[in-house]
């Protein structure tokens, strides 16, 4: 998708739905939300918090509610953006300008604004996942203080990569071979997959 720098440019790029996008835009701008561009889409914010976005695709266009999971949705018109992946976001999808009921759209947007003011939002889970150290690596760490020190200074993510690398091996010989291979990497503060990153 082409990078756009303004809402006007975004609407011009989507000529097949430009009139409908203008209508949705005017409904949203009748509220207190502020208009901006993020990820090359028009996004509407309240105190720099994303509330709704509009977007057009090949066969449909719509409004995305960033924390739509909290909307009452009495009319049962919202869809999960990506079932199984999206926890909070919901979309109101249209196929033509005739599908847009201004009053319904405005009611849903106003409810989303109120929810934002109340602080209703799902925050991404940034908690550290527990590192389960396999026996083979644990034994090596106990017997080598340099290795233990280097391992504990690695990020939680890199520690988990090493632990999973060993624990996923089925045979004991493979676990030992993997352990021998990763020990110098740990001592050098290198992550298991660092060489594939920044390529």
Quick structural overview:
With about 200 residues, the chain is of the alpha+beta class. It has helices spanning about 5-15, 20-30, 100-115, 135-140, 145-150, 155-165, 170-185, and strands at about 35-40, 40-45, 50-55, 60-65, 80, 90-95.
CATH class of the largest domain: Alpha Beta
Q: What is the CATH topology classification name of the largest domain?
A: Aspartate Aminotransferase, domain 1
General form: elongated
Span between termini: 23 Å
Q: What are the secondary-structure elements, in order, as H or E?
A: HHEEEEEEHHHHH
CA-based gyration radius:
25 Å
Largest sheet geometry: 6 strands, antiparallel
List how many beta strands DSSP finds.
6
Mean pLDDT: 89
State the secondary-structure class.
alpha+beta
Question: Notable features of this structure?
Answer:
YdeI_bac; YdhG-like domain-containing protein; 199 residues; 2 domains; 7 helices; 6-stranded antiparallel β-sheet; alpha+beta
Written account of the structure:
It comes from Hyunsoonleella flava. This is YdhG-like domain-containing protein. The chain is α+β, with helices and mostly antiparallel strands. It folds into two domains: about 110 residues, Aspartate Aminotransferase, domain 1 (Alpha-Beta Complex), CATH 3.90.1150; about 60 residues, no CATH class. A six-stranded antiparallel beta sheet has the order 1-2-3-4-6-5. α6 packs antiparallel against α7. The radius of gyration is 25 Å and the shape is elongated. The model has no long low-confidence stretch (mean pLDDT about 90).
